[in-house]
Target: Major facilitator superfamily (MFS) profile domain-containing protein
Amino acid sequence: MSEKLGLSNGVLNQVFSVCTINIINLAHGTTLGWLSPFLPLLQSENSPLETGPVTIEQGSWIGSILCLGGLAGAIIYGSLTSRLGVKRCISCIIIPNISFWVIVYFGTSVYHLYIARFIAGATGGGIMVTFPLFIADISDNKIRGILGSCMALFGNSGILLMYIVGDLLSYRTVPLVMMSVPLLFGIIMYFIPETPQTLLRKRKVEEAAKSLKFFKGITPGTKDMIAFERDFEVLQNFVTNSKAQTTKLQLSDFTSPQAKKGIFIGIFLMFLNQFCGIFAILTYAVTIFQESGSDLSPGASAIIIAAIQILGTVASFVFVDLAGRKVLLLVSTFGTGVGLSCLGTFSWLKEHQFDLTGFGWIPVVILSITMFIFCVGLCSIPFFVLPEILPAKICNVGNTISMISITIFSFVVLKILPIMLEQIELYGATAVFAGTCFVGVIIIAIVIPETKGKNLVVPESV
Model:
Protein backbone atom coordinates (compact mmCIF):
# COMPACT_ATOMS: atom_id res chain seq x y z
CA MET A 1 0.00 0.00 0.00
CA SER A 2 2.80 2.43 0.84
CA GLU A 3 4.44 1.74 -2.52
CA LYS A 4 1.24 2.67 -4.32
CA LEU A 5 1.01 5.83 -2.25
CA GLY A 6 4.59 6.74 -3.17
CA LEU A 7 3.89 6.23 -6.85
CA SER A 8 0.73 8.32 -6.60
CA ASN A 9 2.61 11.16 -4.93
CA GLY A 10 5.31 10.95 -7.57
CA VAL A 11 2.83 11.14 -10.44
CA LEU A 12 1.12 14.07 -8.75
CA ASN A 13 4.40 15.95 -8.35
CA GLN A 14 5.39 15.24 -11.94
CA VAL A 15 2.03 16.46 -13.24
CA PHE A 16 2.23 19.57 -11.05
CA SER A 17 5.74 20.34 -12.29
CA VAL A 18 4.90 19.85 -15.97
CA CYS A 19 1.72 21.93 -15.64
CA THR A 20 3.74 24.67 -13.94
CA ILE A 21 6.35 24.97 -16.68
CA ASN A 22 3.55 24.92 -19.24
CA ILE A 23 2.08 28.13 -17.86
CA ILE A 24 4.75 29.97 -19.85
CA ASN A 25 3.81 27.77 -22.80
CA LEU A 26 0.22 28.96 -22.40
CA ALA A 27 1.54 32.51 -22.39
CA HIS A 28 3.53 31.77 -25.54
CA GLY A 29 0.41 30.37 -27.17
CA THR A 30 -1.30 33.73 -26.70
CA THR A 31 1.56 35.44 -28.56
CA LEU A 32 1.23 32.88 -31.38
CA GLY A 33 -2.50 33.49 -31.65
CA TRP A 34 -2.21 37.28 -31.36
CA LEU A 35 -1.67 37.87 -35.07
CA SER A 36 -4.85 36.14 -36.26
CA PRO A 37 -7.45 38.46 -34.67
CA PHE A 38 -5.40 41.64 -35.06
CA LEU A 39 -3.87 41.29 -38.54
CA PRO A 40 -7.12 42.42 -40.26
CA LEU A 41 -7.16 45.48 -37.96
CA LEU A 42 -3.50 46.23 -38.67
CA GLN A 43 -4.20 46.02 -42.42
CA SER A 44 -7.26 48.27 -42.25
CA GLU A 45 -7.55 52.04 -42.38
CA ASN A 46 -8.15 51.94 -38.61
CA SER A 47 -4.68 50.52 -37.96
CA PRO A 48 -3.36 51.53 -34.50
CA LEU A 49 0.12 52.02 -35.97
CA GLU A 50 1.42 55.48 -36.83
CA THR A 51 3.05 53.98 -39.95
CA GLY A 52 -0.41 53.25 -41.35
CA PRO A 53 -2.05 50.04 -42.61
CA VAL A 54 0.16 46.95 -42.84
CA THR A 55 0.72 45.65 -46.39
CA ILE A 56 0.56 41.97 -47.42
CA GLU A 57 4.35 41.85 -47.56
CA GLN A 58 4.69 43.43 -44.11
CA GLY A 59 2.03 41.08 -42.75
CA SER A 60 3.97 38.07 -43.99
CA TRP A 61 7.06 39.38 -42.20
CA ILE A 62 5.12 39.94 -38.98
CA GLY A 63 3.95 36.33 -39.20
CA SER A 64 7.22 34.70 -40.20
CA ILE A 65 9.84 36.69 -38.31
CA LEU A 66 8.66 34.91 -35.18
CA CYS A 67 10.46 31.84 -36.51
CA LEU A 68 13.77 33.67 -36.84
CA GLY A 69 13.38 34.56 -33.18
CA GLY A 70 12.68 30.88 -32.51
CA LEU A 71 15.95 30.01 -34.22
CA ALA A 72 17.83 32.48 -32.01
CA GLY A 73 16.00 31.25 -28.92
CA ALA A 74 16.77 27.61 -29.68
CA ILE A 75 20.47 28.37 -30.07
CA ILE A 76 20.67 30.58 -26.97
CA TYR A 77 18.69 28.34 -24.64
CA GLY A 78 20.30 25.22 -26.08
CA SER A 79 23.73 26.56 -25.18
CA LEU A 80 22.63 27.76 -21.73
CA THR A 81 20.94 24.52 -20.68
CA SER A 82 24.19 22.73 -19.82
CA ARG A 83 25.50 25.80 -17.99
CA LEU A 84 22.49 27.03 -16.03
CA GLY A 85 20.46 23.85 -15.79
CA VAL A 86 17.11 22.94 -17.31
CA LYS A 87 14.90 24.54 -14.65
CA ARG A 88 16.75 27.85 -14.60
CA CYS A 89 16.64 28.09 -18.39
CA ILE A 90 12.89 27.50 -18.33
CA SER A 91 12.51 30.20 -15.68
CA CYS A 92 14.38 32.66 -17.91
CA ILE A 93 11.80 32.20 -20.67
CA ILE A 94 9.63 34.72 -18.84
CA ILE A 95 11.90 37.54 -20.06
CA PRO A 96 11.17 37.43 -23.82
CA ASN A 97 7.49 36.66 -23.23
CA ILE A 98 6.83 39.75 -21.15
CA SER A 99 9.00 41.82 -23.49
CA PHE A 100 6.68 40.94 -26.38
CA TRP A 101 3.64 42.41 -24.65
CA VAL A 102 5.50 45.52 -23.52
CA ILE A 103 6.60 46.28 -27.09
CA VAL A 104 3.12 45.60 -28.51
CA TYR A 105 1.58 47.97 -25.98
CA PHE A 106 4.01 50.84 -26.60
CA GLY A 107 4.79 50.10 -30.25
CA THR A 108 3.71 52.61 -32.90
CA SER A 109 5.47 51.24 -35.97
CA VAL A 110 5.39 48.05 -37.99
CA TYR A 111 9.10 47.73 -37.18
CA HIS A 112 8.22 47.57 -33.49
CA LEU A 113 5.99 44.59 -34.29
CA TYR A 114 8.86 42.94 -36.15
CA ILE A 115 10.98 43.22 -33.01
CA ALA A 116 8.13 42.04 -30.78
CA ARG A 117 7.41 38.97 -32.87
CA PHE A 118 11.12 38.13 -33.09
CA ILE A 119 11.32 38.21 -29.29
CA ALA A 120 8.14 36.14 -29.01
CA GLY A 121 9.80 33.56 -31.24
CA ALA A 122 12.73 33.36 -28.82
CA THR A 123 10.23 32.24 -26.18
CA GLY A 124 9.11 29.40 -28.42
CA GLY A 125 12.69 28.41 -29.22
CA GLY A 126 13.46 28.18 -25.52
CA ILE A 127 10.37 26.09 -24.88
CA MET A 128 11.10 23.64 -27.68
CA VAL A 129 14.67 23.08 -26.50
CA THR A 130 14.15 22.88 -22.73
CA PHE A 131 10.72 21.29 -22.23
CA PRO A 132 11.48 17.87 -23.79
CA LEU A 133 14.64 17.64 -21.67
CA PHE A 134 12.80 18.57 -18.47
CA ILE A 135 10.00 16.07 -19.13
CA ALA A 136 12.44 13.30 -20.03
CA ASP A 137 14.41 13.98 -16.83
CA ILE A 138 11.53 13.93 -14.33
CA SER A 139 8.80 11.66 -15.72
CA ASP A 140 8.05 7.97 -15.25
CA ASN A 141 8.06 5.89 -18.42
CA LYS A 142 4.36 5.07 -18.18
CA ILE A 143 3.20 8.71 -18.21
CA ARG A 144 5.98 10.36 -20.22
CA GLY A 145 3.85 10.43 -23.36
CA ILE A 146 0.94 12.07 -21.55
CA LEU A 147 3.18 14.68 -19.92
CA GLY A 148 4.79 15.37 -23.29
CA SER A 149 1.35 15.98 -24.80
CA CYS A 150 0.81 18.75 -22.24
CA MET A 151 3.07 20.94 -24.38
CA ALA A 152 0.55 20.93 -27.20
CA LEU A 153 -2.43 21.23 -24.81
CA PHE A 154 -1.17 24.38 -23.10
CA GLY A 155 0.16 25.95 -26.28
CA ASN A 156 -3.13 25.37 -28.09
CA SER A 157 -5.06 26.63 -25.07
CA GLY A 158 -3.06 29.84 -25.29
CA ILE A 159 -4.03 30.24 -28.95
CA LEU A 160 -7.70 29.70 -28.09
CA LEU A 161 -7.46 32.15 -25.20
CA MET A 162 -6.05 34.82 -27.50
CA TYR A 163 -8.73 34.23 -30.16
CA ILE A 164 -11.38 34.82 -27.49
CA VAL A 165 -9.65 37.74 -25.76
CA GLY A 166 -8.75 39.31 -29.11
CA ASP A 167 -12.40 39.15 -30.13
CA LEU A 168 -13.52 40.86 -26.92
CA LEU A 169 -10.83 43.38 -25.94
CA SER A 170 -9.14 46.27 -27.71
CA TYR A 171 -5.68 46.23 -29.27
CA ARG A 172 -4.06 48.14 -26.38
CA THR A 173 -5.95 46.35 -23.58
CA VAL A 174 -4.87 42.83 -24.56
CA PRO A 175 -1.15 43.26 -23.64
CA LEU A 176 -2.06 44.56 -20.17
CA VAL A 177 -4.24 41.52 -19.49
CA MET A 178 -1.85 38.96 -20.97
CA MET A 179 1.18 40.05 -18.92
CA SER A 180 -0.47 38.49 -15.86
CA VAL A 181 0.14 34.96 -17.20
CA PRO A 182 3.98 35.00 -17.28
CA LEU A 183 3.99 36.75 -13.90
CA LEU A 184 1.96 33.87 -12.45
CA PHE A 185 4.44 31.45 -13.99
CA GLY A 186 7.37 33.24 -12.34
CA ILE A 187 5.78 32.89 -8.90
CA ILE A 188 4.82 29.21 -9.08
CA MET A 189 8.08 28.17 -10.75
CA TYR A 190 9.88 29.04 -7.51
CA PHE A 191 8.44 25.89 -5.89
CA ILE A 192 9.73 23.46 -8.56
CA PRO A 193 13.17 21.93 -7.88
CA GLU A 194 15.91 21.60 -10.46
CA THR A 195 16.03 18.20 -12.16
CA PRO A 196 18.16 15.58 -10.37
CA GLN A 197 20.23 15.03 -13.54
CA THR A 198 21.21 18.70 -13.67
CA LEU A 199 22.13 18.73 -9.97
CA LEU A 200 24.24 15.60 -10.35
CA ARG A 201 26.11 17.15 -13.28
CA LYS A 202 26.91 20.05 -10.93
CA ARG A 203 28.00 17.54 -8.24
CA LYS A 204 25.21 18.58 -5.86
CA VAL A 205 24.48 15.04 -4.75
CA GLU A 206 22.33 15.79 -1.67
CA GLU A 207 20.16 18.26 -3.60
CA ALA A 208 19.85 15.75 -6.43
CA ALA A 209 18.60 13.11 -4.00
CA LYS A 210 16.00 15.52 -2.61
CA SER A 211 14.93 16.42 -6.14
CA LEU A 212 14.54 12.77 -7.16
CA LYS A 213 12.53 12.09 -3.99
CA PHE A 214 10.21 14.97 -4.92
CA PHE A 215 9.64 13.80 -8.49
CA LYS A 216 9.22 10.16 -7.38
CA GLY A 217 7.01 11.01 -4.39
CA ILE A 218 9.36 9.54 -1.80
CA THR A 219 8.45 10.51 1.77
CA PRO A 220 9.48 8.90 5.10
CA GLY A 221 7.51 5.73 5.75
CA THR A 222 5.94 5.52 2.29
CA LYS A 223 8.73 3.90 0.27
CA ASP A 224 11.47 1.35 0.61
CA MET A 225 14.56 3.54 0.91
CA ILE A 226 16.80 0.66 -0.13
CA ALA A 227 15.09 0.59 -3.54
CA PHE A 228 15.39 4.37 -3.79
CA GLU A 229 19.11 4.34 -2.97
CA ARG A 230 19.71 1.63 -5.54
CA ASP A 231 17.92 3.56 -8.26
CA PHE A 232 19.61 6.82 -7.26
CA GLU A 233 22.96 5.09 -7.65
CA VAL A 234 21.92 3.93 -11.13
CA LEU A 235 21.05 7.54 -12.00
CA GLN A 236 24.38 8.78 -10.64
CA ASN A 237 26.30 6.28 -12.73
CA PHE A 238 24.29 7.16 -15.84
CA VAL A 239 24.87 10.91 -15.42
CA THR A 240 28.56 10.40 -14.66
CA ASN A 241 29.05 8.27 -17.76
CA SER A 242 27.03 10.65 -19.91
CA LYS A 243 29.04 13.61 -18.64
CA ALA A 244 32.30 11.84 -19.36
CA GLN A 245 31.12 10.97 -22.84
CA THR A 246 29.83 14.49 -23.54
CA THR A 247 33.21 16.02 -22.76
CA LYS A 248 34.65 13.79 -25.49
CA LEU A 249 31.93 14.46 -28.06
CA GLN A 250 33.41 14.07 -31.53
CA LEU A 251 32.24 14.24 -35.12
CA SER A 252 32.29 10.44 -35.27
CA ASP A 253 29.56 10.38 -32.62
CA PHE A 254 27.19 11.88 -35.20
CA THR A 255 28.14 9.51 -38.03
CA SER A 256 27.13 6.22 -36.46
CA PRO A 257 24.05 4.58 -38.08
CA GLN A 258 21.96 5.13 -34.93
CA ALA A 259 22.97 8.80 -34.64
CA LYS A 260 22.38 9.55 -38.33
CA LYS A 261 19.00 7.86 -38.24
CA GLY A 262 18.00 9.66 -35.04
CA ILE A 263 18.96 13.09 -36.39
CA PHE A 264 17.24 12.38 -39.72
CA ILE A 265 14.04 11.36 -37.93
CA GLY A 266 14.18 14.45 -35.71
CA ILE A 267 14.60 16.85 -38.64
CA PHE A 268 12.02 15.01 -40.75
CA LEU A 269 9.38 15.14 -38.00
CA MET A 270 9.99 18.87 -37.56
CA PHE A 271 9.62 19.33 -41.34
CA LEU A 272 6.38 17.37 -41.40
CA ASN A 273 5.00 19.20 -38.36
CA GLN A 274 5.33 22.52 -40.20
CA PHE A 275 4.87 21.65 -43.87
CA CYS A 276 1.55 19.95 -43.17
CA GLY A 277 0.49 23.61 -42.99
CA ILE A 278 -1.66 23.51 -39.85
CA PHE A 279 0.41 25.96 -37.80
CA ALA A 280 0.45 28.42 -40.70
CA ILE A 281 -3.31 28.06 -41.13
CA LEU A 282 -3.80 28.82 -37.42
CA THR A 283 -1.54 31.86 -37.64
CA TYR A 284 -3.59 33.32 -40.48
CA ALA A 285 -6.88 31.69 -39.38
CA VAL A 286 -9.12 34.74 -39.85
CA THR A 287 -7.72 35.38 -43.33
CA ILE A 288 -8.06 31.68 -44.23
CA PHE A 289 -11.74 31.65 -43.34
CA GLN A 290 -12.30 34.80 -45.34
CA GLU A 291 -10.84 32.92 -48.32
CA SER A 292 -12.67 29.63 -47.71
CA GLY A 293 -16.23 30.92 -48.10
CA SER A 294 -17.44 30.01 -44.61
CA ASP A 295 -20.87 31.36 -43.59
CA LEU A 296 -19.64 31.99 -40.04
CA SER A 297 -17.69 35.10 -39.15
CA PRO A 298 -13.92 34.57 -39.49
CA GLY A 299 -13.37 35.33 -35.80
CA ALA A 300 -16.01 32.83 -34.64
CA SER A 301 -14.68 30.20 -37.04
CA ALA A 302 -11.15 30.64 -35.67
CA ILE A 303 -12.40 30.22 -32.08
CA ILE A 304 -14.22 27.00 -33.02
CA ILE A 305 -11.11 25.58 -34.68
CA ALA A 306 -8.94 26.44 -31.69
CA ALA A 307 -11.44 24.77 -29.34
CA ILE A 308 -11.42 21.62 -31.49
CA GLN A 309 -7.64 21.73 -31.30
CA ILE A 310 -7.89 21.44 -27.52
CA LEU A 311 -10.16 18.39 -27.79
CA GLY A 312 -7.70 16.71 -30.15
CA THR A 313 -4.83 17.34 -27.77
CA VAL A 314 -6.80 15.86 -24.86
CA ALA A 315 -7.59 12.82 -27.01
CA SER A 316 -3.87 12.34 -27.60
CA PHE A 317 -3.47 11.91 -23.81
CA VAL A 318 -5.62 8.79 -24.02
CA PHE A 319 -4.04 7.23 -27.10
CA VAL A 320 -0.35 8.18 -26.98
CA ASP A 321 0.63 5.55 -24.41
CA LEU A 322 -1.98 3.03 -25.57
CA ALA A 323 -1.75 2.94 -29.35
CA GLY A 324 1.90 3.98 -29.49
CA ARG A 325 3.77 6.85 -31.12
CA LYS A 326 4.16 5.39 -34.61
CA VAL A 327 0.51 4.37 -35.06
CA LEU A 328 -0.72 7.80 -33.97
CA LEU A 329 1.76 9.52 -36.28
CA LEU A 330 0.56 7.45 -39.23
CA VAL A 331 -3.14 8.02 -38.52
CA SER A 332 -2.68 11.70 -37.72
CA THR A 333 -0.53 12.47 -40.76
CA PHE A 334 -2.77 10.62 -43.21
CA GLY A 335 -5.93 12.14 -41.71
CA THR A 336 -4.46 15.64 -41.90
CA GLY A 337 -3.66 15.11 -45.58
CA VAL A 338 -7.19 13.92 -46.33
CA GLY A 339 -8.74 16.84 -44.45
CA LEU A 340 -6.63 19.42 -46.27
CA SER A 341 -7.53 17.78 -49.58
CA CYS A 342 -11.23 18.16 -48.77
CA LEU A 343 -10.78 21.81 -47.77
CA GLY A 344 -8.87 22.49 -50.99
CA THR A 345 -11.61 20.81 -53.04
CA PHE A 346 -14.29 23.03 -51.49
CA SER A 347 -12.16 26.12 -52.12
CA TRP A 348 -11.66 25.06 -55.76
CA LEU A 349 -15.39 24.58 -56.29
CA LYS A 350 -16.08 28.00 -54.79
CA GLU A 351 -13.40 29.67 -56.90
CA HIS A 352 -14.83 28.12 -60.09
CA GLN A 353 -18.33 29.47 -59.39
CA PHE A 354 -20.06 26.22 -58.39
CA ASP A 355 -23.33 26.80 -56.53
CA LEU A 356 -22.51 26.10 -52.88
CA THR A 357 -25.51 27.85 -51.39
CA GLY A 358 -26.35 26.33 -48.02
CA PHE A 359 -22.97 24.61 -47.72
CA GLY A 360 -20.98 27.46 -46.21
CA TRP A 361 -20.62 25.49 -42.97
CA ILE A 362 -18.47 22.84 -44.65
CA PRO A 363 -15.06 24.62 -44.37
CA VAL A 364 -15.42 24.96 -40.59
CA VAL A 365 -16.42 21.31 -40.21
CA ILE A 366 -13.62 20.07 -42.47
CA LEU A 367 -10.94 22.12 -40.77
CA SER A 368 -12.30 21.20 -37.32
CA ILE A 369 -11.98 17.48 -38.07
CA THR A 370 -8.56 18.02 -39.65
CA MET A 371 -7.38 19.99 -36.63
CA PHE A 372 -8.60 17.26 -34.28
CA ILE A 373 -6.73 14.55 -36.20
CA PHE A 374 -3.58 16.70 -36.37
CA CYS A 375 -3.59 17.28 -32.61
CA VAL A 376 -4.02 13.59 -31.79
CA GLY A 377 -0.52 12.84 -33.05
CA LEU A 378 1.40 15.05 -35.45
CA CYS A 379 1.06 18.15 -33.28
CA SER A 380 2.88 16.91 -30.16
CA ILE A 381 4.54 13.53 -30.73
CA PRO A 382 7.48 14.90 -32.80
CA PHE A 383 8.63 16.96 -29.80
CA PHE A 384 8.68 14.51 -26.92
CA VAL A 385 9.68 11.50 -29.04
CA LEU A 386 13.11 12.99 -29.80
CA PRO A 387 14.79 11.97 -26.51
CA GLU A 388 13.39 8.47 -27.10
CA ILE A 389 15.00 8.21 -30.56
CA LEU A 390 18.31 10.04 -30.24
CA PRO A 391 21.35 8.27 -28.73
CA ALA A 392 21.93 9.43 -25.13
CA LYS A 393 25.38 10.82 -25.88
CA ILE A 394 24.16 13.28 -28.52
CA CYS A 395 20.64 13.79 -27.17
CA ASN A 396 21.07 17.44 -26.16
CA VAL A 397 22.86 18.40 -29.38
CA GLY A 398 20.49 16.39 -31.56
CA ASN A 399 17.49 17.93 -29.84
CA THR A 400 18.86 21.42 -30.44
CA ILE A 401 19.50 20.63 -34.12
CA SER A 402 15.91 19.46 -34.50
CA MET A 403 14.52 22.54 -32.75
CA ILE A 404 16.62 24.84 -34.93
CA SER A 405 15.35 23.04 -38.02
CA ILE A 406 11.69 23.51 -37.06
CA THR A 407 12.16 27.25 -36.70
CA ILE A 408 13.61 27.40 -40.22
CA PHE A 409 10.76 25.30 -41.65
CA SER A 410 8.19 27.38 -39.80
CA PHE A 411 9.69 30.62 -41.10
CA VAL A 412 9.50 29.37 -44.68
CA VAL A 413 5.88 28.25 -44.38
CA LEU A 414 4.67 31.40 -42.62
CA LYS A 415 6.50 33.63 -45.09
CA ILE A 416 5.18 31.95 -48.23
CA LEU A 417 1.59 31.18 -47.20
CA PRO A 418 0.23 34.73 -47.74
CA ILE A 419 1.99 34.75 -51.11
CA MET A 420 0.60 31.29 -51.96
CA LEU A 421 -2.92 32.45 -51.11
CA GLU A 422 -2.48 35.35 -53.50
CA GLN A 423 -0.78 33.39 -56.31
CA ILE A 424 -2.30 29.88 -56.31
CA GLU A 425 -5.33 30.44 -54.06
CA LEU A 426 -6.29 28.44 -50.98
CA TYR A 427 -6.87 25.22 -52.94
CA GLY A 428 -3.34 25.34 -54.37
CA ALA A 429 -1.79 25.87 -50.94
CA THR A 430 -3.75 23.01 -49.38
CA ALA A 431 -2.73 20.73 -52.26
CA VAL A 432 0.94 21.35 -51.45
CA PHE A 433 0.40 20.69 -47.74
CA ALA A 434 -1.70 17.56 -48.33
CA GLY A 435 0.92 16.15 -50.70
CA THR A 436 3.55 16.63 -47.99
CA CYS A 437 1.40 14.66 -45.55
CA PHE A 438 0.93 11.72 -47.90
CA VAL A 439 4.67 11.49 -48.58
CA GLY A 440 5.23 11.74 -44.83
CA VAL A 441 3.01 8.71 -44.19
CA ILE A 442 5.27 6.55 -46.37
CA ILE A 443 8.45 7.71 -44.64
CA ILE A 444 6.95 7.21 -41.15
CA ALA A 445 5.90 3.66 -42.04
CA ILE A 446 9.35 2.74 -43.35
CA VAL A 447 11.81 4.63 -41.14
CA ILE A 448 10.41 5.59 -37.71
CA PRO A 449 10.51 2.95 -34.92
CA GLU A 450 8.01 2.54 -32.09
CA THR A 451 9.34 3.96 -28.79
CA LYS A 452 6.37 3.50 -26.46
CA GLY A 453 7.53 2.60 -22.94
CA LYS A 454 11.22 3.01 -23.73
CA ASN A 455 13.25 3.34 -20.53
CA LEU A 456 15.50 6.40 -20.81
CA VAL A 457 17.41 6.30 -17.53
CA VAL A 458 16.03 4.94 -14.28
CA PRO A 459 14.25 1.64 -13.59
CA GLU A 460 10.57 1.92 -12.68
CA SER A 461 10.99 0.39 -9.26
CA VAL A 462 11.25 3.89 -7.81
Remarks:
- The mean pLDDT is 84.
- DSSP finds 22 helices and no strands in the chain.
- Residues 105 and 173 are 8 Å apart (CA to CA).
- The longest helix spans residues 2-33.
